[in-house]
């Protein structure tokens, strides 16, 4: 009863921010994302009749407390579906730093869902896997299907899941992840999302979000990169405006984050088609077409603000692999 899965993280073009149901993680709105080729979590789950408790290792460290509880709660969902009552050993590794806003929960819980369900003897469809992953971390449901993905917001557990809009080779977009600081963010996304509805701008956002989703899908369909990039950039700022004006209010940016946002706009004025987005963290994602990526990386490195860059292309979603971690 052992299985290993590898899952990509994803970057949202239209963000998931705010829930209508905390426990089920039903989102206030639908969202759209791209799976990332170089930000991955690999997870092995092994159920064992001799274990009456789960043990969790993440990046070589035995994990306890809240992080472990979240893993155990998700395995409980899987145990219930599979009608088993066994403890498990879980070994997981990320190929990127956790907690700086690179969406490690998306890749982590998508990988845990497929590895856990398979190890428990379940054979789930893509839709079922996406529904299950969503309950552990909303954005994880988008790491299940391939390529460019839409999470159909949904109103119930059964109709809130993600589907593939286009396969990875549809469009040569690069997401250059810019790591400006390797410290962990101080407030988790789950915590910060709880205050989303208290922002005076939240209702305003919801009133227009479906038009925005349609527009984003139109630009994606037409491969209109400048229009697509403008929309994605202002969407990230809209989410952060809500984060900053919620009660309590949160500020995720570091000085380096803002300096790079300003520089990105300057590079654009100078003729380079590059746009930023970011999640709940200080690290930036710069979007450009493949043909411009070398130039973007060169400019980034010359700023002296950057600890590391990771160049991502669109990726397939979660899948099983042979190389077990235990
Ligand atoms: C800012 O999926 O991490 O990255 O469901 O509470 O685990 P939980 O939240 P999570 O939220 C992701 C928020 C975001 C935007 C996005 O990816 O859409």
In words, what does this structure look like?
The protein is an alpha+beta fold and 326 residues long. The protein is 36% helix and 26% strand. It folds into 2 domains: 2-167, Ribosomal Protein S5, domain 2 (2-Layer Sandwich), CATH 3.30.230.10; 170-312, 2-Layer Sandwich (Alpha-Beta Plaits), CATH 3.30.70.890. The protein contains 8 helices and 14 strands. The strands form 3 sheets. Strands 1, 4, 5, 6, 7, 8, 9 and 14 form an 8-stranded mixed beta sheet that branches. It has a 4-stranded antiparallel beta sheet with strand order 11-12-10-13. The chain has a two-stranded antiparallel sheet with strand order 2-3. The radius of gyration is 19 Å and the shape is globular. The chain starts with a strand and ends in a 5-residue tail after the last strand. Bound molecules: ligand DP6. Ligand DP6 is lined by residues 12, 15-16, 25, 31, 103, 105, 137-139, 189-190, 193, 279-280.
């Amino acid at each position: 009863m052992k299985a290993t899965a590898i899952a990509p993280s994803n970057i949202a073009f239209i963000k998931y921010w705010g829930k209508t149901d905390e426990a089920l993680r039903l989102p206030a709105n639908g969202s759209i994302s791209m799976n990332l080729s170089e930000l991955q979590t690999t997870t092995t789950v092994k159920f064992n009749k001799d274990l009456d408790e789960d043990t969790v290792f993440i990046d070589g460290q035995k994990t306890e407390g809240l992080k472990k509880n979240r893993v155990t709660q998700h395995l409980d969902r899987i145990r219930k579906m599979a009608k088993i009552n066994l403890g498990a050993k879980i070994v997981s590794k990320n190929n990127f730093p956790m907690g700086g806003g690179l969406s490690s929960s998306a890749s982590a819980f998508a990988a845990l869902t497929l590895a856990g369900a398979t190890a428990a003897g379940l054979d789930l469809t893509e839709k079922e896997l996406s529904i299950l992953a969503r309950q552990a971390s909303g954005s994880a449901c988008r790491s299940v299907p391939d390529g460019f993905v839409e999470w159909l917001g949904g109103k119930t557990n059964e109709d809130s899941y993600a589907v593939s809009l286009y396969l990875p080779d549809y469009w040569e977009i690069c997401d250059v992840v810019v790591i400006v600081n390797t410290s962990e963010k101080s407030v988790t996304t789950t915590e910060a999302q709880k205050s989303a509805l208290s922002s005076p701008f939240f209702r305003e956002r919801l009133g227009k979000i479906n038009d925005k989703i349609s527009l984003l899908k139109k630009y994606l369909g037409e491969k209109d990169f400048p229009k697509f990039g403008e929309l994605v950039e202002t969407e990230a700022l809209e989410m952060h405006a809500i984060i900053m004006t919620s009660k309590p209010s949160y500020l995720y940016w570091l000085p380096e984050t803002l300096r790079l946002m300003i520089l990105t706009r300057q590079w654009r004025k100078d003729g380079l088609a590059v746009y930023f987005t970011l999640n709940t963290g200080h690290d930036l994602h710069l979007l450009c077409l493949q043909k411009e990526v070398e130039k973007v990386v060169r400019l980034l490195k010359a700023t002296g603000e950057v600890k590391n860059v990771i160049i991502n292309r669109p990726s397939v979603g979660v899948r099983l692999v042979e190389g077990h971690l235990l």
